[in-house]
């Protein structure tokens, strides 16, 4: 079976796209899109910036290239719509034939009216969008997680965005990830304006930009957010995809609405599948329905024809409202549970579920969640905030549609309480649980921040992150160290602030000779004390006297003379041209910690 993967439609190279243009199929623009492009060409401006050129590889699962890769995600049909019974089939066929016969002569006229109405409505919406959609130019620089004191080469990329109320620009987070410089340009204008990132939510792949220049806001309109479209409703995607420099418009219909993996943030949130082409450069552009925004274009399905995804309005509103209320991105809440479906009859009977009961089985609880002290393993969750949960983990969503109950949880505000109805030992009870965003033991992404590291006697210590594993290549799940990979995907934190600290590599020197094969192992103890995080490891090493002992995974041990190790550290840093033995965040934390100790004494 053909492997299908989600990818964000963001970056492209001008040179590579021109070379491969004859080998790729680009859908012909509709008459409306052609009219818009002709109008846009009245401004003869073309910029040949050095865009990212790695999109040519057909095996990429996304086009971000921020040093990370994701596992292929197969997209399955929902299959929840009930089929008509056999007794209804003759009636349906008769009605269909009768309707066809009655409208056969009027069909060409009806098609003409429908086409004209769509063209008129869409054209008025696009006219509004022309003064709202902007092109985003980003200069970004990602860190090197193998050599965390270095950055990778700078790259210039492009995306789309649109103006919303409050003189703000909404775009995708992956468009401005690891940014060092951001510019925006209005449609029909040759001038680029400096933009600043006000807030960014990598889990929901959304970001807000602001522009200080008052000249930029002249003759602009803001787009309003609409509602979730119904199936087969038509939307128009506006943006600046590859293949040209001017604005582009494509149209399609809504095919599916369900929770989907967001490739950039590796999170599961609601997304809308459409059959409009979403290509690199479209990311951040609006999907317009009527005269309002139905979503934000952000990723497509590789290996498939014209299957794109847009971020729906509920996710957008949750992101914007959180930023407005707290001044920063607040995240999406989680119960902190791992649940199992209960479609098996014997399983339901074992947990004393009655014939009228439906729900899901609790397998694992995150120790940092509020549910850890309230819920128990083997509880059956029957309902969430009064919404009954089916045996497959879904709840009712609109007319004859269903969606997993995780959507209800993710739409809650941080520190908001919810009522969870559970079945425990055959008795039904209601529990009140406070919801909040939860962080995994091994971070899924590390955008817009430098990685932490600590070097002592040539031993490089870092907290394990998935971006570090992604440095092993696109097939990182199979090529990275198996034990680290399994723990990164499965292990849960046991206390706040806990990190999975590893010895990533050994910078060879006389003092560490013989320890070079102990790389890529977890550091469990320093001088007999369990390590909580990298900062704690630094403090334990600084408190050493004669020698330092590191207890690693697999019962491996490293012992160093403390004074000789400090001298060797300076020598090794100079040899490898490393500016500091500590990352900037550790230097700030340790200096603050030392100042507190000095003031208390």
Number of domains: 3
Q: Could you name the ranges where pLDDT drops below 50 across 5 or more consecutive residues?
A: 1-5, 10-107, 113-120, 595-601
Q: Tell me, what is the CATH class of the largest domain? A: Mainly Beta
Radius of gyration: 27 Å
CATH architectural name of the largest domain: Beta Barrel
Oligomer: single chain
Q: Provide the CATH topology of the largest domain.
A: Thrombin, subunit H
Q: Give the distance, in angstroms, between the N- and C-terminal Cα atoms.
A: 68 Å
User: How many strands?
Assistant: 28
Q: Give the rounded overall mean pLDDT.
A: 80
What is the 3D form? globular
Question: Helix/strand-derived class?
Answer: alpha+beta
Percent in strands: 25-35%
Count of helical regions: 13
Percent of residues in helices: 10-25%
Biggest sheet statistics: 7 strands, antiparallel
Describe the structure.
By secondary structure, the protein is of the alpha+beta class. It folds into 3 domains: 121-326, Thrombin, subunit H; 337-435, PDZ domain (Pdz3 Domain); 454-598, Alpha-Beta Barrel (N-terminal domain of MutM-like DNA repair proteins). The protein is 23% helix and 29% strand. It is built from 13 helices and 28 strands. The radius of gyration is 27 Å and the shape is globular. The model is unreliable at 1-5, 10-107, 113-120 and 595-601 (pLDDT under 50).
């Amino acid at each position: 079976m053909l492997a299908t993967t989600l990818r964000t439609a963001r970056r492209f190279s001008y040179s590579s796209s021109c070379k491969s243009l004859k080998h790729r199929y680009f859908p012909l623009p509709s008459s409306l899109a052609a009219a818009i492009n002709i109008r846009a060409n009245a401004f003869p401006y073309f910029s040949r910036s050095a865009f990212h050129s790695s999109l040519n590889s057909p095996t990429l699962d996304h086009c971000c290239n921020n040093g990370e890769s994701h596992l292929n995600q197969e997209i399955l049909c929902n299959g929840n719509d009930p089929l008509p019974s056999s007794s209804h089939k003759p009636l349906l066929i008769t009605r269909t034939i009768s309707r066809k016969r009655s409208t056969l002569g009027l069909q060409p006229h009806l098609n003409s009216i429908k086409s004209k109405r769509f063209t008129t409505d869409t054209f008025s919406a696009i006219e509004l969008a022309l003064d709202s959609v902007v092109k985003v130019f980003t200069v970004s620089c990602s860190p090197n997680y193998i050599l965390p004191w270095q950055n990778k080469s700078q790259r210039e990329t492009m995306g789309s965005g649109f103006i919303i109320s409050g003189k703000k620009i909404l775009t995708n987070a992956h468009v401005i990830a690891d940014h060092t410089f951001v510019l925006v340009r209005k449609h029909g204008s040759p001038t680029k304006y400096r933009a600043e990132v006000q807030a960014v939510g990598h889990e929901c792949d959304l970001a807000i930009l602001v522009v200080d220049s008052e000249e930029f806001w002249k003759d602009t309109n803001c787009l309003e957010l609409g509602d979730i479209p119904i199936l087969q409703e038509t939307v128009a995607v506006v943006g600046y995809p590859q293949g040209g420099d001017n604005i582009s418009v494509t149209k399609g219909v809504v095919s599916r609405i369900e929770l989907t993996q967001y490739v950039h943030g590796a999170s599961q949130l609601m997304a809308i599948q459409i059959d409009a082409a979403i290509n690199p450069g479209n990311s951040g552009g609006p999907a317009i329905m009527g005269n309002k925004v139905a979503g934000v274009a952000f990723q497509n399905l590789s290996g498939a024809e014209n299957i794109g995804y847009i971020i729906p309005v509920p996710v957008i509103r949750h992101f914007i409202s959180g930023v407005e209320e707290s001044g920063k991105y607040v995240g999406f809440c989680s119960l902190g549970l791992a649940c199992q479906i209960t479609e098996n009859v014997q399983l339901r009977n074992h947990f004393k579920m009655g014939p009228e009961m439906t729900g899901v089985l609790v397998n694992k609880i995150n120790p940092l969640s509020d549910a850890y002290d309230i819920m128990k393993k083997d509880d059956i969750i029957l309902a969430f905030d009064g919404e009954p949960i089916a045996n497959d983990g879904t709840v009712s969503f609109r007319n004859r549609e269903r969606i997993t109950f995780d959507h209800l949880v993710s739409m809650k505000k941080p520190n908001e309480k919810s009522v969870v109805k559970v079945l425990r030992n055959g008795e039904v009870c209601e529990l009140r649980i406070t919801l909040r965003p939860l962080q995994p033991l091994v971070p899924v992404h590390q955008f817009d921040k430098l990685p932490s590291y600590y070097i002592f006697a040539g031993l490089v210590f870092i907290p394990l992150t998935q971006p570090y594993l992604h440095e092993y290549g696109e097939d990182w799940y199979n090529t990275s160290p198996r034990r680290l990979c399994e723990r990164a995907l499965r292990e849960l934190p046991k206390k706040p602030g806990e990190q999975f600290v590893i010895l990533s590599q050994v910078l060879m020197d006389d003092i560490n000779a013989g320890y070079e094969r102990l790389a890529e192992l977890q550091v469990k103890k320093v001088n007999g004390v369990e390590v909580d995080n990298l900062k704690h490891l630094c403090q334990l090493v600084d408190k050493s006297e004669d020698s330092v002992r590191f207890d690693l995974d697999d019962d491996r041990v490293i012992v160093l003379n403390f004074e000789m190790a400090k001298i060797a550290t300076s020598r090794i840093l100079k040899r490898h041209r490393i500016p500091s033995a500590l990352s900037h965040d550790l230097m700030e934390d340790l200096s603050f910690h030392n100042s507190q100790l000095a003031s208390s004494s």
